[in-house]
Design a protein that fits this description.
CATH class: Alpha Beta
Strand order of the largest sheet: 2-1-5-6-7
Number of strands: 7
CATH superfamily: HAD superfamily/HAD-like
Number of helices: 10
Strand content: 15-25%
GO molecular function, one term: L-phosphoserine phosphatase activity
Largest sheet: 5 strands, parallel
Pathway: Amino-acid biosynthesis; L-serine biosynthesis; L-serine from 3-phospho-D-glycerate: step 3/3
EC number: 3.1.3.3
Family: Belongs to the HAD-like hydrolase superfamily. SerB family.
Number of domains: 1
CATH architecture: 3-Layer(aba) Sandwich
GO biological process, one term: L-serine biosynthetic process
Shape: globular
Length: 210
Amino acid sequence: MRGLVCFDVDGTLAPGPSSCAWVAAVLGHEAELVAAEAAYDAGLMTNQEASVIDARGWAGHTEAEIGARLASLPLVEGIAETVEWCHEHSLRPILTTLAWTPVGRMLAGRFGFAAYCGPVPAVRDGRYTGDVAEHFDEYGKRDFALAQGIAPERCVAVGDGRSDLPLFAAVGMSIGFNASPPARAVATQVVDSGDLTAIVPLLEAQFSSV
């Protein structure tokens, strides 16, 4: 394996609304969730606290209900082509995200990402309980990427916001994709596009000598 390419979901692959807000819009707690996301982005709330708020809104709903809603999540163009390019060039594409694990599972199955991470919502008998079974944060994202067994200098992180900053600091190249000002300030490269394939020339250049 020549290298690792780590992709964030919310704000990156899903340009807006976030996967959580997309689900919350039909479950009835969108306003509360969006406020929690804004507080997290501003550094006023931890992801653990935001996850507790969002998980409550899932209580009583089935895995099938949530899965059906996630299937229509708005995404940028070019995801399938970019993931395919990674595989063809011996690069391991993974999802490094704070989105719930059902989101990562759906995207990995649909596009061929090799692995995914994220907080885990509690489920009993096919229904969400409203609790968080396993919390996850931005440092967990970084650690998940570094645990893939590929040297950090041969890793690229693609992201847009606060949750990507620890990973950006740990890898050989970071790409701020439609990124917020804090992410732009520290990213190695910045790309603004509605098509993920816009990052392929940067990946090609980064791994040309590997």
